[in-house]
Amino acid sequence: MDISVVVPLYNEAESLPELEAWIARVMTENHFSYEVIFVDDGSTDNSWQVIENLQKANPNIRGISFRRNYGKSPALNTGFARAKGDVVITMDADLQDSPDEIPELYRMITEDGYDLVSGYKKKRYDPLSKTIPTKLFNATARAVSGIKNLHDFNCGLKAYRQKVVKHIEVHGDMHRYIPYLAKLAGFNKIGEKVVHHQARKYGTTKFGLDRFVNGYLDLATLWFTGKFGKKPMHFFGLLGSLMFFLGFIAVAVVGIMKLYHMHAGHPYSLVTDSPYFFLSLTLMLLGSQLFLAGFIGELIVRNSTLRNQYEIDKTINIMTND
Ligand code: UDP
Ligand code: MG
Question: Average pLDDT for residues 291-302, to the nearest whole number?
Answer without folding.
Answer: 96
